[in-house]
Amino acid sequence: MTTGFSSSSCRFADYFVICGLDTETGLEPDELSALCQYIQATKHNDGARRMSASANEGENFDQSPLRRTFKSKVLAHYPENVEWSPFDQDAVGMLCMPKGLSFRTQADSREPQFHSFIITREDGSRTYGFALTFYEEVTSKQICSAMQTLYHMHNAEQYDILHMPSATPTGIEDSHGLLQASPSISRLQRFNSYDITRDTLYVSKCICLMAPMAFPQACRKVLEQLHQAVSSAQPPPLPLESYIFNVLYEVPLPPPGRSLKFLGVYSPVVCQRPSTSELPLFEFPLGDMFQLLGVENVLQLFTCALLEIQILLYSQHYQRLMTVAESITTLMFPFQWQHVYVPILPASLLHFLDAPVPYLMGLHSNGQDDRSKLELPQEANLCFVDIDNHLLELPEDLPQFPNKLEFIQEISEALMAFGIPPEGDLQRGEGMAKLKGFRACDVVSDRRNGNLAGSPLSSYLLKENETIARLQALVKRTGVSLEKLDVKESPSSNKDLKLQCDEDELRMHQLNIRVREIFANRFTQMFADYEVFVIQSSQDKDSWFSNREQMQNFDKASFLSDQPEPYLPFLSRFLETQTFASFIDSKILCHNEEDKEHALRVFDARVDKVRMLNVRTPTLRTSMYQKCTTVDEAEKAIEMRLSKIDHTALHPHLLDMKIGQGRYEPGFFPRLQSDVLSAGPTSNKWTKRSAPAQWRRKDRQKQHAEHLYLDNDQREKYIQEARNLGTTIRQPKLSNLSPSVIAQTNWKFVEGLLKECRNKTKRMLVEKMGREAVELGHGEGSITGVEENTLIASLCDLLERIWSHGLQVKQGKSALWSHLLHYQESKEKEDTTPGGLGPPGFIHDSERRRSDAGSALPPLKVSLIQDVRHIQNIGEIKTDVGKARAWVRLSMEKKLLSRHLKQLLSDQELTKKLYKRYAFLRCDDEKEQFLYHLLSFNAVDYFCFTNVFTTIMIPYHVVVIPSKKLGGSMFTANPWICVSGELSETGVLQIPKNTLEITFECQNLGKLTTVQMGHDNSGLYAKWLVECVVVRNEITGHTYKFPCGRWLGKGVDDGSLERILVGELMTPSSENEERLCRTPPLQQSPGMIRRLVAISPNSKPKLNTGQIQEGVGEAINGIVKHFHKPEKERGSLTLLLCGEGGLVWALEQVFQHGFKSPRLFKSVFIWDFLEKAQTHFESLEQREMVQDENWQTNTRTFCRFMRAINSTPRNIGKDGKFQMLVCLGARDHLLHHWIALLADCPITGQMYEDSALIKDHTLVNSLIRVLQTLQEFNITLEASLVKGIGI
């Protein structure tokens, strides 16, 4: 990426550096060896393996001296310093030779190796380094004899290890031991020996160019030619100083949109730079990454990078690490990786893998150890990429990238046109990339990923990788054949263009631009309308910065609501990232074109184009896959630049050197003359000489536009600040790490974690509260189920990062779960205390679940250990990471997360045992603040456990509470109950009549909705007055109350033997104020006592017609709102139909208004009226006095439903039957027809007063109109409401 260059650099290269062996200081072991020894020692902690461990350690640390690494030094760099890019000696030294010096003898291979690296400063600006490492003969006698001495010591030690007396108990075996040992000793001496009299010793040396922009191909050529000049028998045409002076001071950067040619030692070097309207500069070979990993793996890695998952690349080739890191980040265009970025992690910085922040790092493997030996601090949210073995380890539940299959198909076609198989191919690497780093021994035939190296595509497709197989099917449908694609023959579409660079380089440019355009096009299509959703700030910039964290910069909810369903899992997570946030921030900060960063400007131009092409309404997104159309034009631009060179730099020339300077010995890279290289030409003639004035002016404008140098420092500051928001630490300092530097870095991490915790909790609460405000009728709906899961998953990820910061020894993939298990173990040891109530680890919180159902249900004990056990008992969750996440979800649902974690951390002995002093969990103030932030989750209700683990078994506890006034002590019948929830129902459960409570286990019912209860009417006294039923989920502790307040029994109340009760979640009474922010505001309990047991004049204050109409309106409104919510968020429809203030209750009020008072002691129910109406209609049918066809169908359906309900085998009473009729009528959209029928029925005249609502035509008509609004909804009834009805 070409971001954040130093302002006044317009030279091609800033420094020339030489690193290698400093003969003055001699051989110093590299920190790496010490580190390896330490890692080995900690690896074998357990006593059982102590014995073999000592041998292993010895072997590993005491690798033969030739295989050890020693400290390298920066021997020289020219010039001393340039003000726009200060020279960072530590960083350059570490990255030029990340493993330090290595020695070889004439027997070893000594091929030069090229690699590039990057130094990111703390402000995010970057410098690139290009290094060529080669071997030179050691001339210093002291060094040679030091090496010989090391060998003598080493061989003696090896001999001791092989003859360890303790390993052999008897003499016979001892002789065996000797026999076996002797070949290995001779082998040791033969392969690992250095004999000063016989062998030539070589040591590595490195020459390096530091440059402000990445031109790896050009820099590689320059360095290789310099090396060639030294190693060839003939001296070069001019002294080396001339060429180095030329590249440092006389070769400018090519201006945007231009190409540049300059001379190396033997041949010209060409580089070109894209114009301001093209994709930013990128010259690493993308083809290499696809060959090394395959398309499928690259896309998974790409998804991880976009979602800011920690990424660790692993390879024995530095250049591969760099190529993959740079390729993945460049493909993210227009977004930029915002976090720690160290493509090559020097050995002395290994502790950085402990960083609890997103990072993209590259780790060098020595090629001997396999993956299992690699101990990583945290793997819960890590993407591990073993580049050499074509292998990816991904974090759990990684969402799919949108349109993944079509996307893979499009990329595969592009790759195959260049002869790269989509599954990747290590063997072709040599020919394609001319990478010196590839060797035949690296080619691995690897079946683990379904990759058989070198197999043809078709057979590969039929093998294991199912994505590619699905692709094949898609290919057939689209009619494109992967087999017959022409492999590009001609390097250039225009035969007449004379190219100034070699064909391989052009092919690399063409493939790069083709793949990059395909990736960029995906984002252009996905975010074509993003500008509409950017929330522009009304404040000035300064106040915008001070309030940045409180403000939303993008309307995520509206954006997501426009997206196709399959995109949501990925997009809802991506919109939460720092990457996306800083992209939008820079959009807000740049009001006009000139201000925009290059990437943003290019992207916006493309988005505008797409919008022009798609004349379709901008908000209606389709999931139609749109292929990339911009490739040809982009390729042409590059070909034009490479065929017609715009600019040639000054040629190298003789410098004013003293006589005798500039001579050197062949085979050795000399110490150069610093006096001629320390400063450039006195007057910068070359700028004037080589560029006409207009060119310079254009160039200046372009450079200005590309942020190469900004006059407007203020703007740069703002953009930088926007970048740094939310990322406390961008980059580790690559310096020799003293304890104080490490402590400071860790302190930054701790602050960063705390800040992130604050932001996450706030974001989750705003979403929740926002939704509740909506349900209370303020404003628009926002959060979706997908998004809630995303937020909770990112909270789990944050907790994992906090728990893995500063771990002493890593156990298992989840640090949080491992800590919980340690705690459980220590508490269970203490748990031998008598009394059975367990150790002090249990908090007996009798206040917590005290409920207004009185002491019917003793409160659940709050126990951290118990919750851990619940999770351990869930067989479906297999991994540690999964268990930790489930535990977090359960604790959130129980509103105990903060409390549990506080209890977990209160065991300070354990925390000290598990964590280093600097760990976040041992910083007391921060820890307190962190727990305080988590406490705020208790203000809202989450169902994030119940709704996610839908298939697990859960124990439920049920208590039936009979009325105290008319206690059920004489009750003789056998009661039963059936509990239903949003996910399923239990079936009939018998309840023991003496205790009236039962505990049972069944598959998760979800949020509970209804309880059906009844009895078998047996015995002498089969009448039962029930106050309510209470059901508790024994894992989450959610307690539901189902009020009843009616009789069950023949000849009493409405003669019902069973009732359907609608319930609601009870809140702990200590938290009454919490009522204000209940999540789904489940309606208040349907207090059925108030449901007019008998219609007698004094039973309750009558509602007037206005209030009744309002009640009906509210009930219907509730149902309409229900259907307007996204499916995942709808509460229970049963509540809206049968709950308090529901539709059944509202229509009951309608029919009770003006009902004639019955005679004393005789109860009349609405059902009685409806039965009379039914008889009337049926008699009319028989006498064939039919009014019209419509009327006839309506009466028929009415009578059919009445008959069906009356003939049901269930013993539901008259009010239960009325409820059933209303529910069925709502389901089949018949209620408004029936009301019209009944209003005109003569029976109504007999049974109602004249003032009754049902007799008032205008009121009835408005009632019918309101009921008609239900017609557009598809109402599905819960099974419990319509059991036993065959309609």
TrEMBL record:
Residues 786-950, 1134-1282 form the RUN domain. Residues 54-597 form the UDENN domain. Keywords: Guanine-nucleotide releasing factor, Membrane, Phosphoprotein, Repeat. CDD domains: PLAT_RAB6IP1, RUN1_DENND5A. GO terms for molecular function: guanyl-nucleotide exchange factor activity; small GTPase binding. Residues 954-1062 form the PLAT domain. InterPro entries: cDENN_dom (IPR001194), dDENN_dom (IPR005112), DEN5A/B (IPR047278), DENN_C (IPR043153), PLAT/LH2_dom (IPR001024), PLAT/LH2_dom_sf (IPR036392), PLAT_RAB6IP1 (IPR047277), RUN1_DENND5A (IPR047294). Its main location: membrane. It comes from the Eukaryota. One of its GO terms (biological process) is retrograde transport, endosome to Golgi. Residues 680-704, 827-854 are annotated as: Disordered. SMART domains: dDENN, DENN, RUN, uDENN. It holds the Pfam family RUN. It is found in: Membrane. GO terms for cellular component: cytosol; membrane; trans-Golgi network. Belongs to the RAB6IP1 family. This is DENN domain containing 5A. It comes from Scleropages formosus.
